[in-house]
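hey all, quick one before standup. I had two proteins in the batch that finished overnight and I want to keep them in one place so we stop losing track of which output belongs to which input. First protein below, input sequence then structure tokens straight from the run.
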Amino acid sequence: MNNLSDSALEQLSKIIGNRYTGTDITSFFHKIGYVNIRHDGTTKWRFVNEHLKQIQTKNGYFEILKAIEQLCSPEEFFQNRDELSVVLGEVNEVLSYYQLRVNKDGKMVHNSHIEPVLKSKITEDASIFNSRNYHPEIRKHAFKLFNDGLYFHAVFECCKSFDKCVSEKAEMDKHGAALMGAALSPNGCLKLNKQETETQRNEQEGLMHLCTGLMKAIRNPQGHEPELYWKMH
């Protein structure tokens, strides 16, 4: 087998960059034996791409396959099994060009009967979504829905996820605007900063209003209005 192409490495780097935080990327490289690689705060997928190229040039494509197996290991998805299927689909789309695939157990296999299905370009929706470098939680809840054209549901799922996250962190049995007002107010339990200056207090109050507005403008209307009558463009 020849080395993976620059295009393939770029696609794999974007998958890794979208899945992991900067800290997780450092941990990812450590797990495959590159303990000197530490994410430096630059764009995640570009950082990953640069180092995957260096690894392949120095040590060969086998090291890239090892990295892919680590990415697709079921042990990386204990808290979200559904995301494993998404990642496997994205990775195997790239690997099919090389007549390779990763099974659900995270192991690489060769199959000469696999027809290459690597697309010349990803869908327009996926390209738009990936260009925004969203937080991993946003990608987890919205990417598939957005890529399928289900924008209404993609936004709704993200709002519900954010609501759940704030509720759990604040340890409050509230939801929506009421939760944001209680948890993020200047007297609430979730702090953006130390609130020692007027600027810091204004930032805290501003965040509360933004999050309250998100719930009132998106979550609540979507929770009560039929999709046919409340369009999400």
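OK second protein, same deal, sequence then tokens:
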Amino acid sequence: MMASFPTQAAENSADNHSPEERLLELGITLPAAPSPVANYVNGVQTGNLIFLAGKGPKRADGSEVSGKLGKDLSIEEGYEAARLTAINQMAVLKAMLGDLNRVTRVVKVLGMVNSDPDFVEQPAVINGFSDLIVEVFGERGRHARAAVGMASLPRGQAVEIEMIVEVDGETTP
């Protein structure tokens, strides 16, 4: 499946609607927030910042997109895996906040790509995450980012992405 990239019109539409409305327009239903797979929590809030733990491309059926970019997976497949990871991270935010409109800014994204040693297109893969975040949150979704290659990732997943967001007020447990 070829990656679809957001247009300026899509980004402007996100600025005119709440993130929840924008998800509906995009035909995206957020899943239940994925549970942590080890001894950690999905996110920690300190002040008005939430630090989200790394999540991967878990599908609705519980399976994950796995494999190395540049060997097992194409850039387009990696892009879609990163997009799926954005959906999972938004599900965590929704569970923590109750309303995605409480996100005032996506501050920073760290995208880790399970890469073949010769693969150097990590930014193109992590664009799948960044593009969807900007489509949903508009200007407040524009963020600082790192996209790096890793020799391996847990369970062989294609990508793992963590995120820092600024929110208004305290979260509810």
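Flagging for whoever picks this up: The chain has a mean pLDDT of 91. The domain at 8-26+52-167 is CATH 3.30.1330.40 (60s Ribosomal Protein L30; Chain: A;).
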